[in-house]
Amino acid sequence: MLAFSQETSAINRDAQVLIMTTEILHNMLYQSVGNVSSGSGLFCVDVIVLDEVHYLSDISRGTVWEEIVIYRPKEVQLICLSTTVANPDELAGWIGQIHVKTELVTSSKRPVPLTWHFSTKTSLLPLLDEKGTNMNRKLSLNYLRVKPYKEDWSKRRKSRKHGSDMSYDNIGSMSQQPPLSKNDINAIQRSQVPQVNDTLWHLKARDMLPAIWFIFSRKGCDTAVQYGDSCKRTSARGCSHHAGCLPLWKSFIEELFQRGLVKVVFATETLAAGINMPARTAVISSLSKRSDGGRIHLSSNELLQMAGHAGRRGTDRGGHVVLVQTPYEGAEECCKILFVGLEPLVSQFTASYGMVLNLLAGAKVTNRSKESDEFLAGRTLEEARKLVEQSFGNYVGSNVMLAAKEELDKIQKEIEVLTSALSDEAIDRKSRKTLSQPAYKEIVDLQEELRAEKHVRTELWKQMESRRIFALKPLLKESESGQLPFLCLQYKDFEGVQHSVPAVFLGRVDSLNGSKLETMVFCDDSFS
């Protein structure tokens, strides 16, 4: 087995399986696109396996993953693996469009079932109800508000002290108090935040170790290890694992954890990226993390990726995921993220200067003559453009536009059918078929009366307009006195709808002259 790292260190170069980062494979593919020479290392490869292909949606690394799919030699089979892809059909369709027909294999069965828990200062409770469709009511804020009173009432009942001023009826009335304010919610959440040793004690008592404890801070991981001194009674020895540790130290910790010599590993989310360290329990300390733009919430995909480390196949009957109460996030926020479901893959493909240079300088085999050997030449701009246009974003965008156009055409046809069904002729035909002769005759007579009334209304409107114009004529002659009469202009549009426009009479014009109209408007003192 040959292992490549980002620093290109290698072990056992003669092995038949190469393990490398996507960045190294990406650089190798740049040199092989269009190259049919058998001397290239990638042409001795039968299969490329892309594990955790959901990183295609990663902002910083997504472009590299897309380019690997685009530049893969057609002779090499591609296998993409992931547990958190909501649109695998689109991914398979994109790969099939670029290369050859692709087969999609999906499975919703998990070998080791997961159970979700929520850790507070005093307890470790199931996050969901018995059906697994709603949050456990004992974790609701209203329940936590009256819980201290219920516990106090229970203690007084056990002490058998009569004459207590606290009764169960009083407790029931407390559960019907007004809605909690923001300050009340913050106070309740802060009072329920557990310490690391509190949660560790519950894990040990319920035989839920070994565990991976995800903390989104290197400093937080190193600090959490110190809690081992204050909870020695749990026998839960812990170590930290993050990108700031030396590679040799991380390998050492992974070996100890796999052998069961370390019960708890405090790690950042980078451990969820394909490292083979399954545990019985995955503990997620927070639902938010720091980013360049401030604190952001975890996505459902990130949450499920970390939860995927819980449950060891062949060892555990079930895995456990523990979400921890924080000062700002409770069980309700956990359920919101959990019930959202998987997020679809989104293209992060962006062209960079390095990509352009690599494409134009990439290998391409050309024959000088029949007798000469092959030599390498750069790609043309047209060839580079075609490669870039094969991105996942272009595929999804074109499909979305096509689907939207088809849906729009379908809706337009439905509107035409409904419009034709509402025409007078269509209504008349349907009425003649469904109604009796007397009823149909009555409707026809009513329609004739309606038409006559509309005609009378139109004639009356015309008479009113003529009288209005007759009354305005004296005012038009006296317009030079400075009293500008107001008019109401009316017209019908192409659909026959009548509109009214208020206007002011400025003067008479013999022809439609724009400059004269402009002079009349700006020289009139009434507009100053």
From TrEMBL:
One CC-aspect GO term: Ski complex
Location of the Helicase C-terminal domain: 195-360
Segments for region (Disordered): 154-181
Organism for this UniProt entry: Quillaja saponaria (Soap bark tree)
Biased composition (Polar residues): 170-181
InterPro entries listed in its UniProt record: DEAD/DEAH_box_helicase_dom, Helicase_ATP-bd, Helicase_C-like, P-loop_NTPase, RNA-DNA_Helicase, SH3_ISE2
Name under which the protein is recorded: DExH-box ATP-dependent RNA helicase
Keywords on record: ATP-binding, Helicase, Hydrolase, Nucleotide-binding
UniProt domain Helicase ATP-binding: residue ranges: 1-103
Domain of life of the organism encoding this protein: Eukaryota
